[in-house]
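Hi R.,

Here's the chain you asked about this morning:
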Amino acid sequence: MKLLTEEIERFGDSFIPVTESGCWIWEKGVDKDGYGNFSTKARETIRAHRISYFIYKGEIPKGKMVLHTCDTPSCVNPNHLYIGDNYDNMRDRSVRGRGVFHTNEKHPACKFSNTEIKRILLLNGLGVSRKEIQEEFGISPSHLSSVISGRYRNVN
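And the predicted structure, written out as tokens:
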């Protein structure tokens, strides 16, 4: 990446430091996810935190991402930025509880509530035939087998 002196100066005029958090909040355009956008003279749009990392810390290795320690997408403080890969980004996202993680009955593809799963397991435990359980719940033999074995979902 190459930047002109005037681009570096313009970058420096495009954020506001926030004393309480230490973040430098990007004041210019942001994308739908809240990340700042920086437009170069070459008409290239680059995320502002990547520009900040480049200006203050150096080259970004090919195939790597610039990640935030502060959890603020519009922050461009180089002290809040570090290099990582997609695995690091997803692990960080999970640890911080960001993003939408649908599990169990909240998953859009979920067919049964926890109560229904427990009923299926109870009926099976009481010796009700699998055919009767399939008919009551409208499921295939393989689906019923997955529920009973716990492969479908484990409800304790």
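The two ends are 53 Å apart (CA to CA).

Let me know if you need anything else.
M.
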